[in-house]
Structures are given as structure tokens and as C-alpha cells.
Write a structure and sequence with these properties.
The structure holds two protein chains of two kinds. Chain A is of the alpha/beta class. Chain A has 20 helices and 16 strands. In chain A, strand 10 and strand 11 form a beta hairpin. In chain A, helix 5 crosses helix 10, helix 7 packs antiparallel against helix 10 and helix 15 crosses helix 16. The radius of gyration of chain A is 23 Å and the shape is globular. Chain B is of the alpha/beta class. Chain B has two domains: 89 residues, Translation factors (Elongation Factor Tu (Ef-tu), domain 3, Beta Barrel), CATH 2.40.30; 158 residues, Rossmann fold. Chain B is 33% helix and 30% strand. In chain B, strand 4 and strand 5 form a beta hairpin. In chain B, helix 5 packs parallel to helix 6. Chain B is globular, with a radius of gyration of 20 Å. The chains are: A alpha/beta, B alpha/beta. Chains A and B meet through strand 5 and helix 15 of A and helix 1, strand 7, helix 8 and helix 9 of B. The structure holds flavin-adenine dinucleotide (FAD) (2 copies) and FE2/S2 (inorganic) cluster.
Chain lengths: 491, 305
């Protein structure tokens, strides 16, 4: 492998990790513009110099889709940013997205040897840098498209899993059509993750690229309602279907008072703001709770909770608080989000769980009855279980409470496709290598199979599904590890 | 995009649209609804499908002007298009032979109740239809009601047309005169549905109401449409919109529907100050979408469907 790094390893390790330029916390927490400004080429080169080009790159190993980190870093050092972007695209078709939202500390950067002694290489920031450079240059080399095979593939859901699969299959010469329930394409990337973390233009550009490659998109189609999978295959002639519908069903706490005005699921709060742009009301028609001078709590501690709490702050909340039943060490959110949230004035109230919401005589939320917790023995997930402390209940003032404790599978498709095997949580069963389901010709991947996970894992599933669909379409052989569904268990 | 093929003014502030929506027309069952969006800054609102013509690939909806979006929609004419229409959503109505059914509808609820009424009639029921309107100019679809029911009653609150009185009075009158009613469907303003529920509950008549909670996606994704039914949270868009009346907590429905009152008033006032401007935005949005749809390159030939 070429090596464009002029420095000896010792010198490389003396360079400190470059900081991502950010907009000041007390400015950005009043608007929805992007927080991170991105590396300029000087910073990027300086950071890239820190890579010691390990013979066995653990960074690449820790990446769920195996991005060739060492090689793209080397191309940055050679000044070939477009080449670096192309190198990433070999394994990851949405680098401008993942560079911004991947939990790098658990993946590539978590595997980086530099991290053992000091700070790991800022791989995410570098990925973002080359991806943005490529988008701005307008020189995205669209991949070659194989001659038409005459086969048709339907993709259900336009989140990262569906988009990745579509992008791969179109290159193989298949005809690909993506069906999306909402009016906008992108899945969680558009309705969940806010503009200040992932500008929607980035997602739109990626989708435009796919359009140019020939992928067809049809919005406003709820598969299972507007058309069923069987109809797609039998009446509209699709030879294969990839189901990538995500885990969109919101979970509530099931405590008294959850119907009060002012209690939202994170999905609703974020959808109103991101998909419907309620933060720009009245320019946009969709309203959302007027947070100005209000006390807001967000229950949960994942990326969704951070996105919701930071959104409420931007909408003018007097106080914006994360309420979580464990401690900071157990919080699943990306480290950077927690750091940004703290800088922006978000309060973190740990070891606390609401047990009741209390409203005024008109049904508007005013307080949450909260219970203090302590950590007990580890549970099945390996995290220490929160145990309520007797007699610790107290009242917390709040006008808006956003529940961000997770999502589950939306059963719309499963309930109209009885021969699609699901597990007891209604997630679709798919082979982890081939993404094949129990139903011939039908593949599934992303959050609808794994439960809420990450963008990059969903993309990985989309890519495996594309390879497997292609194999099925070219050989005609259907083999799957998933046993037939017991049709009687479905209602 | 979804072309408007024809429109008809049904009453003051209530308009009927026939819209090109082939997929929806093929899958529709009575009781289901669509969600639509008019332009790129618009909200998504739910509207009941009143009829479909699968051969022509069309659906019919009836809209009463209440706030900004419905006012704006009611300005559209044949030749205009709707940017987004998604459906059919929600659970279909339960259709079977109950015996004698009473359909009780107020204002635009009449249009919403028609498809289920037709299906109940076809299933062999004796159909009593009680339509209520505040005034003569708000009475809708009288001919259709007369054609699909065995016993049509049309009332106005102020007596300006036909019988004077409330739909609940008529229901009570029938029950007090000893009429046996086996099933009631009430569709209309919340106070009306609640009053009907109160009457039928004490008499043990099974009653279903169609709940108009505020919706966003309509697919079970946000939970904004949740209603309290039998003290459990249910999502009106996927578990409903029809629910057993005696289980419904109407207070919570009224309270949740008031959530955005201030914003709704502001939107409507701003809109009424300059409706032409918004109408132009709607038309521009549709033009842009048309260009986008034309620009989409399809390698394998023209769009299949
Ligand atoms: C608020 C929030 C923040 C997050 N932050 C991060 C982060 O920082 N980093 C990270 O890695 N991950 C993050 N995640 C998780 C990540 O976004 C998901 O794991 C990922 O998007 C899953 O991709 P997917 O393609 O499986 O599904 P989704 O992105 O959920 O897309 C599914 C799509 O299918 C559509 N659909 C559903 N049902 C139907 C149907 N019946 N017919 C047609 N279309 C249908 C949906 O409308 C949606 O557009 C976050 C999630 C949320 C909610
Ligand atoms: C399943 C269902 C079927 C419906 N069918 C019809 C129909 O066939 N014809 C018809 O005229 N109306 C119907 N409605 C009501 C219609 O959706 C509302 O009148 C419309 O959303 C109001 O929008 P607006 O912007 O004009 O008014 P707004 O100013 O937004 O609101 C005015 C009133 O409408 C209610 N409302 C506001 N937004 C929504 C929303 N997204 N969903 C429901 N209610 C809302 C508010 O509580 C308020 O009282 C139906 C509602 C539901 C839930
Ligand atoms: S409208 Fe969002 S869940 Fe019903």
C-alpha cells in the first residue's frame, strides 16, 4: 500500500487531535443551523498525519461495513480528496451522513490504536470532510450501471437500509423502485435527526444522485395499506422485495397522565419539527407546542432524547432537562451529542424516573411525579438495573414532557403478509448473512429486523440484502435459514 | 401528484372533490380515510373517503372549511392537483347484518357516514339515517341519504328546513316510541357523538363513534392521535378511527383537540388576510413536483404504474 505520510511514527504521535470547529453554544442553541462547521483541508491534513497506518487496522475491523479507513486517510495525505471519498463509497454509500451521525467512539475510533494512550484519530470528522468536499465539488462520479437484466425489485422504506440497497441494485442493472409511506424520502434521516445535526440538503443530494442513477421513488405509499407485498409481486411484477421499514412505533411509559396536553412521544415532537418544519411556524403550517418560557423534560438518554431536548431548547424552553433512570455512564447517546447538549445548557437529572404526569384543570401538563433510583445488579443487557428508592418521590415542574424511551416494530406490513415470519416483538425474522425472510423473494433489513440500532448497521444490512437479491435474481435459487411462518399466530 | 377531476359545492363551506388516486381506489374499504398535504409548507390533514371508483381510479372526499388547510383546499378547482394523498388508512368499518341500524350524522359527518351506511344497507340492515344541520344551507347530500336509507330523517337546529330539532331528539323519539334499534353509528361533532353515546349506553345499544383526533403521519408512527378508550391509549389512525362509544373518554378527546387552538387561529387569520398568496404557493408546489416527476429517468421504459 502506498504511504503518503512524510512523518515517522514518533512525530505523528506528538500531534494532538484536531478539534472540530463548532458554532458557539449560546448562539447555536437559538437556531437550527448545523452545530459542527467541518474541517478545512489544513485541519484535515493535520489530523490525517496522526494516522500511524497500522499493519492490522483495527479501525476498519470495528467498522460495521468495513470502510478502508487506512487507505482513505492515505489518500487525504496525498491531497486526493475525491479519491478518498470514492474509497469510502466502496463500502459506505452515505459518507456525508455517517461522518456526522455514526457513534464513532464505539466503532472505528473505538478500535483506533492511538486511543489506547491518547485521543483516537478523528476518523468521523475526516470522513465528513471528504464527503462534503465531494458534494461541494459537484464531481461525484456516478458509478457505471450494468446493462438491464429485466428484473424488477421493490424496496419498502427509504431510510438508510432501503437507500443503500437501492443504490447497489441499480448498479447491477435491475429496475429498482422505492416505496415510502411519508411524503419525504430518507426515513429517520429526515423525520428524526434534526437539521442542526444533519442538514436535510445532504440527504436530498444523495437521493438526487440515486435518481440520476435511475432509481425510481414513489412517496405516499404505505405498503400493507396502499398495496400489499403480494400485490407488488403478483400483480405489479416485482421479482424481489426488500422490506426496510424501520422501528417507527413509539413507546410510552404507561404511567397515569400520559394523555395530558404537553406529553409527546419523541417521534411526534421530532416529526413535527423535522419533517413538518414546525419550528418555522407560522411560515410552515404545522404547529408544535410553544416551548418559550416553559420547563421541558425529556425522558430517556439515547440520541433521540438528545435530539428532542436540544430541539426544545432551540424553541425557547426556559429549562430543558434530560431525566434518566440510570447514570451518565449508561447513556446510549453518542458522546458528542452529550457534550454538545451540556454546552448548550441542557440539565441532566440522573437516577430519576417519572411515575405520573399531573395536569391543571384544563388538562395541560404542569408537573411530573418522579422517583429516585439507585443502580442494582446488572440486567440481561449487562447494564446495572435501576431500582426505585422507597419514599423518594418528589414533584418536578414541567409543561412539556417528551418520552424518548425507545421504539418498536410497526406491524402494518407483517399483519398483511401472513407468511412473513416475525419474532415475539413483531420484528421480521431475516437471515443475518443473506437478509432472506421466510417468504420466497422477500428480504428484510435494518431496524425492522434488529430493532432500533444505527444508521451504519442499517446500511450494512441494505448492502448484504442487495448482494443476496442479486444472487437470487441471477441464479433463481431461493434458500433461507428462516423457517416458515406459523400463519395462525398472526391476527 | 393527485389531480382534481371535478368538484361540487355541497353546502355553505362544504365541498366535494373527485381526485385521481388509482392505488387508493383499489384498496379502499368503507370507514377508511386519506391524509393529504397541499403544498411544501402545508400540514397533513385526515379526510374520510366518501366513495371510490376503481375503474376510473378515483376517490371522492368532502371537506368542511374549519381552519386554514380546509379553507385552502376548498379554493381548489378541477385542473389543480393535490401534492400528497396517502391511504387508505385506518381500520374499515365493521359491516354485518345487525338488524336495524341508526346512522346519526352531523354536518360534514353525513358525507363521512355515507359509505359505511351503504355497506350496512347492502349487508341487509334496515337503515335509519338521521342527518342534522344547523341551518338549511348546511344540509348536505339529501338525495343520496334518501336513496340509501329506508328511513331518512333530516333536521335543522333552527327549523329553517324540514323538521326542527337535534339528532338526539329524533333518536330519543324513535326509541321512546318503542323502535328497536340494534346498532348505532354516530359521526360528527364531539358533543353530538357524546350525547348519542349517553342515550344509547343506558339502553344497552351497541354504538360506534368515529373519532377525529389530531393526526400527523396516520401510520402509527407518532402517537399524536392517541385517544383514551376503555382507559387504554389507542392510536386513532391505526386502531380506529371507529371505537365503541361507551368506552371512549370524550373529555380527553376534547382536551387534546384543543392543543393547538392559538396556532390554528393565527394560521387561519393570516390566511384569510391573503388567500390568493397561499393559493399561488399551492399551485407552484404542484408545478415543481410535476417537473420533478417528469425529470425522473427510468431506464427500463415508462413508469409501470
Ligand atoms: C431521533 C433519532 C436520532 C438518531 N440518531 C442516530 C445517530 O446519531 N447515529 C446513528 O447511527 N443512528 C441514529 N439513530 C438510529 C438510526 O436513525 C436508525 O437506526 C436507522 O435510521 C434505521 O434505518 P432503517 O433504514 O432501518 O429505517 P428508518 O430510517 O426508520 O426508515 C424506514 C422508512 O420506512 C418507511 N416506512 C415504514 N413503514 C412503511 C410502510 N409500511 N410502507 C412504506 N414505507 C414505510 C418509514 O416512513 C421510513 O421512512 C437515530 C434514530 C432516531 C429516531
Ligand atoms: C379520521 C378523520 C377523518 C376526517 N374526515 C373528515 C372529512 O371527511 N371531512 C372533513 O371536513 N373533515 C374531516 N376530518 C376533520 C379534519 O381533518 C379537520 O377538520 C382538519 O384537519 C382541520 O384542518 P384545518 O387546518 O382546516 O383546521 P385547524 O385550524 O388545523 O383546526 C381546526 C379544528 O380541526 C381540528 N384539527 C386540526 N388539525 C387536525 C388534524 N390534523 N386532524 C384532525 N383534526 C384536526 C382541531 O382540533 C380544530 O378543532 C376528519 C378527521 C379525522 C381524524
Ligand atoms: S397520526 Fe401519528 S400515530 Fe396516528
Amino acid at each position: 500500500m502506498p504511504n503518503n505520510n512524510p512523518l515517522p511514527n514518533k512525530e505523528r504521535m506528538k500531534i494532538l487531535r484536531q478539534h472540530m470547529p463548532e458554532r458557539p453554544a449560546d448562539v447555536r442553541n437559538h437556531d437550527f443551523l448545523e452545530v459542527n462547521l467541518g474541517f478545512q483541508s489544513e485541519l484535515a491534513k493535520q489530523e490525517a498525519l496522526r494516522c500511524i497506518a497500522c499493519a492490522k487496522p483495527t479501525c476498519m475491523h470495528e467498522c460495521p461495513v468495513g470502510v478502508k479507513v487506512r487507505e482513505f486517510i492515505d489518500l487525504i495525505l496525498a491531497g486526493d480528496y475525491l479519491g478518498a471519498a470514492a474509497k469510502i463509497r466502496e463500502d459506505n454509500v452515505l459518507p456525508a451522513v455517517t461522518g456526522r451521525v455514526c457513534p464513532q467512539e464505539e466503532q472505528c475510533e473505538g478500535g483506533c490504536v492511538l486511543g489506547k494512550k491518547g485521543d483516537s484519530l478523528a476518523i468521523g470528522h475526516l470522513e465528513r470532510f471528504v464527503a462534503d468536499y465531494e458534494q461541494k465539488s459537484g464531481k461525484l462520479g456516478l458509478p457505471a450501471i450494468a446493462p438491464p437484466t429485466g428484473k424488477k425489485v421493490a424496496i419498502v422504506g427509504s431510510g438508510p437500509a432501503g437507500l443503500t440497497c437501492a443504490g447497489d441494485l441499480i448498479q447491477k442493472g435491475h429496475r429498482v423502485r422505492v416505496f415510502e409511506a411519508l411524503h419525504e424520502l430518507g426515513g429517520v434521516l429526515v423525520y428524526g435527526i434534526p437539521e442542526f445535526r444533519l442538514p436535510k440538503d445532504i440527504v436530498r443530494q444523495e437521493i438526487d444522485n440515486m435518481r440520476k442513477m435511475g432509481v425510481e421513488f414513489e412517496t405516499d405509499v404505505v405498503v400493507g395499506k396502499t398495496v400489499t407485498i403480494d400485490e407488488l409481486m403478483q400483480e405489479e411484477g416485482y421479482d424481489a422485495v426488500f422490506v426496510a421499514t424501520g422501528a417507527g412505533l413509539p413507546q410510552f411509559l404507561n404511567v397515569p397522565g400520559e394523555h395530558l396536553n404537553g406529553v409527546y412521544s419523541a417521534n411526534e415532537f421530532l416529526t413535527r419539527n423535522n419533517l413538518m418544519r414546525a419550528y418555522r411556524f407560522p411560515e410552515f403550517d404545522e404547529p408544535v407546542y410553544d416551548c418559550r418560557d416553559r420547563n421541558v423534560i425529556v425522558v430517556g438518554s439515547g440520541n433521540t432524547a438528545m435530539d428532542a431536548v436540544r430541539t426544545s431548547k432551540r424553541l425557547g424552553a426556559k429549562s430543558a432537562t434530560i431525566v434518566y433512570r440510570r447514570t451518565e455512564a449508561e447513556m446510549p447517546a453518542r458522546l458528542e451529542e452529550v457534550k454538545h447538549a451540556k454546552e448548550e445548557g441542557i440539565v441532566f437529572t440522573m437516577l430519576t424516573a417519572p411515575v405520573e404526569f399531573i395536569g391543571d384543570e384544563k388538562g395541560w401538563l404542569r408537573q411530573a411525579r418522579c422517583q429516585k433510583m439507585e443502580l442494582g445488579e446488572p440486567d440481561a443487557s449487562g447494564r446495572r438495573r435501576p431500582v426505585p428508592i422507597k419514599g423518594s418521590e418528589y414533584l418536578m415542574d414541567c409543561d412539556l414532557a417528551i418520552i424518548a424511551v425507545g421504539t418498536s416494530a410497526n406491524p402494518l406490513i407483517q399483519s398483511t403478509t401472513p407468511d412473513l415470519a416475525t419474532n415475539k416483538w413483531k420484528y421480521i425474522q431475516a437471515d443475518p448473512n443473506t437478509q432472506r425472510t421466510s417468504k420466497p423473494g422477500v428480504f428484510a433489513g435494518g431496524d425492522i429486523v434488529t430493532g432500533g440500532a444505527t444508521v451504519i448497521l442499517a446500511m450494512g444490512a441494505g448492502r448484504r440484502a442487495a448482494a443476496s437479491v442479486h444472487q437470487y435474481l441471477t441464479t433463481g435459487v431461493w434458500e433461507t435459514s428462516i423457517p416458515a411462518a406459523e400463519t395462525t399466530t398472526h391476527s | 401528484m393527485f389531480k382534481i377531476l371535478s368538484t361540487r359545492q355541497l353546502a355553505t363551506g362544504i365541498k366535494q372533490f373527485v381526485i385521481e388516486a388509482p392505488r387508493i381506489s383499489h384498496k379502499y374499504q368503507p370507514g377508511q380515510f386519506v391524509i393529504l398535504r397541499l403544498y411544501d409548507r402545508g400540514e397533513r390533514i385526515p379526510l374520510t373517503i366518501k366513495a371510490v371508483d376503481p375503474q376510473a381510479g378515483t376517490i371522492t372526499i368532502c371537506v368542511q372549511s374549519v381552519g386554514k388547510t380546509t379553507h385552502l383546499l376548498n379554493l381548489l378547482e378541477p385542473g389543480d392537483s393535490l401534492l400528497d394523498v396517502v391511504g387508505p388508512l385506518g381500520k374499515p368499518s365493521e359491516i354485518k347484518n345487525f338488524g336495524t341500524v341508526a346512522i346519526i350524522a352531523g354536518s360534514v359527518g353525513t358525507a363521512m357516514a355515507i359509505p359505511t351506511t351503504k355497506a350496512l344497507k347492502q349487508a341487509g340492515n334496515h337503515v335509519i339515517f338521521i342527518e342534522g344541520a344547523r341551518r338549511q344551507d348546511l344540509v348536505v347530500l339529501e338525495d343520496e341519504i334518501r336513496a340509501i336509507s329506508d328511513e331518512p330523517y333530516i333536521l335543522t337546529d333552527d327549523g329553517s328546513y324540514l323538521e326542527k330539532g337535534l339528532v338526539t331528539h329524533k333518536l330519543l323519539q324513535l326509541l321512546d316510541s318503542g323502535r328497536k334499534i340494534d346498532f348505532v353509528l354516530a359521526v360528527g361533532p364531539i358533543p353530538m357523538m357524546r350525547a348519542v353515546a349517553d342515550i344509547t349506553k343506558t339502553r344497552g345499544i351497541r354504538t360506534v363513534v368515529s373519532l377525529n383526533s389530531i393526526m400527523v403521519d396516520g401510520t402509527g408512527m407518532c402517537g399524536g392521535c392517541r385517544v383514551l378508550v376503555g382507559n387504554h391509549s389507542q392510536f386513532a389512525c391505526v386502531d380506529g378511527p371507529e371505537f365503541e362509544a361507551d368506552q371512549v373518554n370524550f373529555d380527553v378527546l376534547v382536551q387534546r383537540n384543543s392543543m393547538y387552538r392559538d396556532a390554528e387561529h393565527k394560521s387561519l387569520d393570516d390566511f384569510l388576510a391573503n388567500p390568493e398568496r397561499e393559493l399561488a404557493l399551492v399551485r407552484e408546489s404542484c408545478k415543481l413536483r410535476e417537473l420533478e416527476e417528469h425529470a425522473a429517468v427510468v431506464p427500463g421504459g415508462p413508469h409501470a404504474k
